[in-house]
TrEMBL record:
GO terms for biological process: copper ion transport; response to copper ion. It is a multi-pass membrane protein. The chain crosses the membrane at residues 12-31, 43-67, 96-114, 121-138, 158-177, 198-220, 232-257, 278-300. It comes from the Bacteria. One of its GO terms (cellular component) is plasma membrane. Signal peptide: none annotated. Keywords: Cell inner membrane, Cell membrane, Copper, Membrane, Transmembrane, Transmembrane helix. Coiled coil: none annotated. It is found in: Cell inner membrane; Cell membrane. It comes from Pseudomonas syringae pv. japonica str. M301072. This is Copper resistance protein D. The keyword Cell membrane applies. Involved in copper resistance. Pfam families: CopD.
Amino acid sequence: MEDPLSIAVRFALYTDLMMLFGLALFGLYSLRGAERRSGAVLPFRPLLSATALIGLLLSVVSIVLMAKAMSGASEWLEAVPHAEMMVTQTELGTAWLIRMAALVGAAVTIAFNLRVPMASLLMVSLLGGVALATLAWTGHGAMDEGSRRFWHFSADILHLWSSGGWFGALVAFALMLRPNKVETLQSVQVLSRTLSGFERAGAVIVALIVLSGVVNYLFIVGPQVSGVVESTYGVLLLGKLALFGLMVGLASANRFVLSPAFERAVHRGEYARAARSIRYSMALELGAAVLVLGLIAWLGTLSPEMEAGM
């Protein structure tokens, strides 16, 4: 089994970069005008600044851990020269440098949110998307060559972006559904509008996740299921699919039952109870998403081919 610390760092990095990208993107397509200013609806500036800085720290730890594992070094300091060599002489190192530059740019750009909220969120979403895409170079696609490598990377990146879009939206709704945020009619109206508006975006996101996930499976395992479920990789993959199914079910309940009920309650001025129901559903969906990210981080360290041969 891969080092638990490496899996934990991968999980934290996936969660962090998806939040950076997805939350900024949510502010662009769901909020309007002054609502995009930090503090009006969501605390964009402190949250995205912290996320970018944490991403920088996690990226440093990640590259040293990879160098330590590849070199066989027993101490962290022994791995530093190997990490420097990886950064300067490998494609993975180039992707890492691009990620670091994108995260620095995001941290600087979000500082201007109060002055130019839309432009700052646009830049953070673009830079966050670049940083998130670099995680593909730590996955299975890096082992391919030629055109297969290109298409595998493309599917990986699309999967990362669509997953980040969903995760960021869940974080945004969790923040907007806090009890102290559903006390005024204005905040409740914004919440109702964004919940309704996310229906179309959510459907597109789910479709992209399914499409890119199927393509990734075909690249990694091939058009087969026999034998895969007997491996650790297969068990984790089944767990991921079960959690994804739960998330889709909860999202469907939100879309077709809870959101319409909340919208009707807002018109009647009785939104506290309806907000509570959506809050519980979103909490479950966000919890499932966190577990999925943990499984993704673990799956990225496993090879179904190697396990099949053991």
